[in-house]
Design brief:
The protein is mainly α. The chain is built from 5 helices and no strands. Among the domains are: about 40 residues, no CATH class; about 55 residues. The chain starts with about 35 loop residues before the first helix and ends with a helix.
Length: about 150
Amino acid sequence: MTGEPENSAPKQDGRFKPGQSGNPAGKPRGSRHRVTMLAEKLMSDDAEAIVKAVLDAAQKGDMSAARLVLDRIAPARKGSVVMLDLPPVSDAAGVTQALAAVVQAMAAGEIAPDEAQAVSAVLEGQRRAIETVELERRIAELENRK
C-alpha cells in the first residue's frame, strides 16, 4: 500500500464520454451574454445623443466620423459586378455552355479567376436545381407507371 486512499485517483480524464454532453440542454436559444446586454442597454439609453454627436463631428470634417456614417448609409460592396454574355441556363446543356463561356472569359483575361469561381458556383447551384427538378419528374413518371 502506498498510503493513498483508494478513492483519491481521478474518476475520469477530464473529458466527457462520447455521446454524453456536460450540458445536455445546452445554452437556451436566443440567450445573450450579460455584458452584451449591458452594453446594448447603455448604448440604447444614449443612442440619439451618440448618433447626433457622430453626425455633428462628420459635418465638422472629422473623417473618422464621416467614414462611420458613410459605412452605415452606403456600405462597400463585398464583391465586384461581373458582366458576361451567358446562354440561357434552363437545362443541363445550357449550364455546360455557360460554364464553357466562363472558362473562356477567364482564359481571355476578361474576368479574374476568383470571379470565374464565383460565377461557376452560381451555375453549379443552378445545375443542382435543374437536376432536382428532373429527378422529381422522372420519379413521378415511374410512380405513375405502377
